[in-house]
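Appendix B. Extra example for self-study. Work through it before the problem class; the solution is given directly after the inputs so you can check yourself.
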Amino acid sequence: MSELEELRATVDLLAARVRALEDQAEIAQLVAEYGPAVDSGSGDAAAALWTEDGTFDAIPHLRMRGRGDIAAMVHGAGHQSLIHGGCGHILTTPHIVVDGDQASGRGYAFHVRWDPDAGRFWLFRVSANTWRWVRTAQGWRISERINANLDGTQEHRDMLAPPGRTMKGITP
Amino acid sequence: MSELEELRATVDLLAARVRALEDQAEIAQLVAEYGPAVDSGSGDAAAALWTEDGTFDAIPHLRMRGRGDIAAMVHGAGHQSLIHGGCGHILTTPHIVVDGDQASGRGYAFHVRWDPDAGRFWLFRVSANTWRWVRTAQGWRISERINANLDGTQEHRDMLAPPGRTMKGITP
Amino acid sequence: MSELEELRATVDLLAARVRALEDQAEIAQLVAEYGPAVDSGSGDAAAALWTEDGTFDAIPHLRMRGRGDIAAMVHGAGHQSLIHGGCGHILTTPHIVVDGDQASGRGYAFHVRWDPDAGRFWLFRVSANTWRWVRTAQGWRISERINANLDGTQEHRDMLAPPGRTMKGITP
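Solution. C-alpha cells for the complete assembly:
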C-alpha cells in the first residue's frame, strides 16, 4: 500500500468513529426533544420524533400506533388538562446501543405535576423506558417506545435489564 | 483534483463534523456544571459559566445581569440558607441547536429541597429553561438563561416549544 | 514537510480530538448504565461497571470494596425489597474531566420510591456524586464513586465544588 493509501485507510476508520459518535449524539438529542415537545403542547413536533408508523406504549393506558395517534394524545383533553394545570415530562439521556441503521436503549422518564395549593410539584410517575430507533433519510427516528411505571411490577423493572440478559418471564 | 487533494477535502469535511460534535459536547458539559457550582456555593465558578455580561432570569423573582449578579445570588443570604438546609439544582441535558458561533437550547431544571423532619426531599420547582450560548476565545459560555416554573402559565410552557414554531402570545 | 506529511499531521490531531469525544461519550454512557442495572436487579451488570477492585461509598451506610461487594448489595435483602416495592435510581450525566487514562466527575443521583397507597413517588434522596474512572483494556470503568445525601451537610455539598477549588474542611 502506498503512503497515500495508508492515510486514506486511516481517514476511513476515523470517519466511521465520527459517524458512531454522531449516531449517539443525534439519538440522545432526539430523546431530549420529547419532553419539551409534549410539555409545550406541540403535538406535531412530538409525533415527528417517531417514524410514520412508530409506536408508543404508555402502559397500561395508552397504545399509540403511528404519528397520528401521538399527535392526538398531545392535542387530546387529558394531556391539555395536564399542561394547563402544570406538568413536566422529563426524560434521562438513555443508554444507547447502535447496530448499523438500528439502535435500542433504556432510560427513565419523570412525570411531575404542579400542586397549586401546596405550591410544589409531586412525582406522579417515574417510569422505565425502552426505545428502538431507526436511521431514516431524515435522520434517526423513534420506531418504538415503551413507558411503564416503576411500581414494583417485575415486567416493568425487567425492561431496564442490560441487553442480552435473559429475563424471567420475557423471552429473549 | 489529485488524489491527495481529494483526501484533504475529505479530511476537511470530517474536521467540520468533529467540531460540530465538540460544540454539542462542550455546551452540554457547560450546563452540567451549573448545578454543582451553585449547590456547592461556588459563586465565582457559577458566574464563569456565563459571558461577562450574560443574563439569567429566574422568573419572577430574580433578574441577573452580568457575572457579578450571578455570583452575588450564590453568595447571598437566600441561596446560602438553601444550601445549608439541603437542596439540589438539577438540570437536564438540553436540546441544543448550534448555528456558527451561537447556539440555543431548551431543557428543564429541578429544584429540590431537603425536609429534615420528614427525612425526604420535596420538589419545590420544575422549570422550563431556555438557553443562548456564544463561542468565546475561552470556549462556549452562556449569554442568556431563562428559568420559569411549569405551573400551568402558558408563557412558561411555550418556552419549551420547538424553535421556529410560532407560539401564541410570543412574537417569533 | 511534504503535503502528504502535513495532511497526516492534520489527521493525527483530528484523531486525538475524536478520541477525546469518545472518552466523554463512553464515560457518560457508563454512568447511564448504573440505574437500569440496579433497578432491574442485575447485580453482575452493575458490578461490571466498576474495575475489579473499584469502590463505592454510599454514605453513611454502605462501604463497598470491589465488584463482589457491589453485586452483593444489589442481590441483598435491602435492595431486593426496594425494587419489589418500586424504586428508581436516576443519575444525571455528570461533568467529566478526562486526564489521559484517568477521569473524574461530579453529578447527582435521585433515589425515588413508589408509595402504593398514595399512588405516587416520593424523593427519598437526592445525592451529590463524585466519580473516578480509569481506562482499561475493556474500556472505561468506575474506580471510585461516592454518593452522599444533599441534606445540608457541608462535606456533602463540597463534593460538588469545581476541581481545583480549595474547599473548607477538605485537604485539596
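Self-check: The beta strands of chain B are 50-59, 62-65, 87-91, 95-99, 102-115, 120-136, 139-149. If your reasoning did not lead you there, revisit section 3.
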